[in-house]
Write the structure tokens for this entry.
Amino acid sequence: MSEDAEPTENISGGDEGWTEFAETAAGDASTRAEAVVDRLGEMYWQKAYGGRDAFECLVRTILSQNTSDKASQPAHDALMERYGGADLDLAERLAAADQSELAETISGAGLYNQKSEVIIQTAEWVLEEYGSETAFDEFVQSGDPSAVRDTLLSVTGVGPKTADCVLLFSGGRGGVFPVDTHVHRIARRLGVAPADADHEGVRAELERDVPAEKCGFGHTAMIQFGREYCTARKPACLEGPEACPMEDLCDQTGVYPATGEVEDPAEARTDAD
């Protein structure tokens, strides 16, 4: 397993709240998806997540929607500098925030007017339903996972990826495999999910085929693999089979090394095309 620390930006929302996971024995995977996750764990890290502040994690993930880590991390830091604090209730502070001021604070994250509105509404919802940030944290970390997920999904502006990230990084729930753009692309390219699967379809496949205790680091390590090797337009395999450490486990769906073409896996051509 790599000795490098996991990047703090976006992948886990911070550099705390995880512990090293015991390495798994080679060759014991029961599905190809599990073999993929085991390989990624050997390349990067095998960690157990949980313990992050649930409301801050929720806000952090909202900021990350439709933007890069390079943009959303500074926006999160600026928000916490202005509204956070050890002795402050972040939900109370954000519920009372002036939207234009909040929008200016997070402007680097993109869609800042929309996101500032969603964040304020979410903070108001937390206070109305739970009374405090602390009570919301307790609900996320100790409530029934399916009930927590359904509750989060009922909030305007919170989608499946956001809800799953909160369950994973705050609640530390096993069996949760959030699907972002990287995971959606890579799982279908590899062939461990159907080429035409939507984000929820990919999530269902991965959560079925990857053991619960491996889903967390499978998610974060797959994101890192997507950044380093399996990028959207220039996956490493275009340079040759030896350029990608997952070559023997990959169907290369939608990638054509012979011609250098790359397309969405859902549009991949068959041999008959």
The two ends are 41 Å apart (CA to CA). The CA atoms of residues 66 and 105 lie 17 Å apart. The first helix runs from residue 32 to 43.
